[in-house]
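chain below, 263 aa
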Amino acid sequence: MKIHKAHTLLDIDGDAVLREARSLIGKQLAQPARRAFLQRSLTLGGLSLLTGCSLSDNSQVESALLKISRFNDKVQGLIFSPTQLAPTYTDAEITRPFPFNAYYGEDEVRIVDEAGYRLEVTGMVADRHAWTLTELRAMPQTDQITRHICVEGWSAIGKWGGVRFADFLRHIGADTSAKYVGFKCADDYYTSIDMATALHPQTLLTLTYDGQPLPPKYGFPMKLRMPTKLGYKNPKHIMAMFVTNTYPGGYWEDQGYNWFGGS
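prediction:
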């Protein structure tokens, strides 16, 4: 069946879309390669978007796969619940040691000077002053033991502590009607998230791991911890954040990975 632009959400079988999207999110965990990652999306309902394309034309297929990925972003955004919590665990269930994960080796972990650290805050916010770790640690803190799920197919349970991101956004007078929050990191990584996820009660500006200051290999001085997102959406070594209505993309997302990257 060809999908026509004139169709609205009222024309879509909501239950079917929900089943397909949830299946998609789960199946994407097993394959990190860009093309296979997108082709999995294609097998789950996007084939109709290829109508009129030659499967031998690589550029057309690539373009269609990217459109399917963006469609998946929209579906995942629609089914995301800002109040549904990810599972939590006990101290006894923590994975020890918690795995290191990055796009580089552990011997290349970035070291950020604590004394000189300042979190740059820009964009659609009222208070744009640069935050020290002392100021961030003075805010109310909370802990959570949640599961990190990697797109490569593995998972691990860790204990993270820090400031609820929703509290921080409200404290700085962020425009919470904006679409995106973007992040820039000391290791040249960058990513962005939707505002609904930013305001989720389990989204943390993480300052500690297992009750201790966040180690460099886990993202010192700060990482964003979101148990509702895949691992690549959780930036480490955060140096700057901004609130915007302009789509910011991300390190892996700009290479074709699903932008929403969550449930």
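The chain is about 25% helix and 20% strand. The beta strands are 120-123, 142-149, 155-164, 180-185, 190-194, 204-209, 212-213, 223-225, 238-244.
thats it, cya
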